[in-house]
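User: quick one - fold this with S-adenosyl-L-homocysteine bound?
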Amino acid sequence: MRQRNVKNKKDIINNSKYIILNPEEYIGNWKKLFNNFNPIYIEIGMGKGDFILENAINYPNINFIGIEKYDSIIALAIKKIEKIELNNLKLIRMDALNIDNVFKKEIDKLYLNFSDPWPKERHAKRRLTSNVFLEKYDNIFVNNKVIEMKTDNQGLFEYSLISFNDYGYHIKEISLDLHHSNKENNIMTEYEKKFSSKNNRIYYVKVEKNQ
Ligand code: SAH
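Assistant: Sure. Structure tokens for the protein plus S-adenosyl-L-homocysteine:
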């Protein structure tokens, strides 16, 4: 995502009630943090947060955690989210490479929306659906591992299907043209709004792997 420098981004992050600054301290205890036993869904690479915010508003009985690597981007998400009062949403500024130090057997679903494609073969391991990341995700799920992915990047989509398959995931739902499918209640991300307005095709897959 193109980054615009956001003034006072550190202050915005450090002072937000939505941000968890020391997420490793909550490993194994996220349900306690939310103070209920509701399922926890996370999104890695949440960008400016439209998707996770709309989910949190629409589904109050699910807890949502948005993860984003860059200060400037998460600061923009915070500005938007701070205006709303929600008990079922938290944000973490971190690199997903650290995810297995933050969650342990407590996540019910993972969303990957318009992840960076890293088109060069020598960067394939950096893709959020490479086996490097799939191995890390293994330890975070409480029951079955469930991942939902959307992208407009055909190359990343093809790569991810093979990577999921090689790693033992099964396809539960798939669309090669999400916006012309009969899938209901689709919540759009910022990139999805942008790319679909240019008539880019949106790919979608939901995969699952038993414990
Ligand atoms: N999900 C949003 C943004 C997509 S752009 C949307 O669909 O509109 C991809 C986002 O993932 C960027 O904001 C980028 O900073 C973030 N990202 C990429 N690699 C990451 C990583 N390893 N850990 C956390 N966030 C990451």
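One thing worth noting: The CA atoms of residues 69 and 94 lie 5 Å apart.
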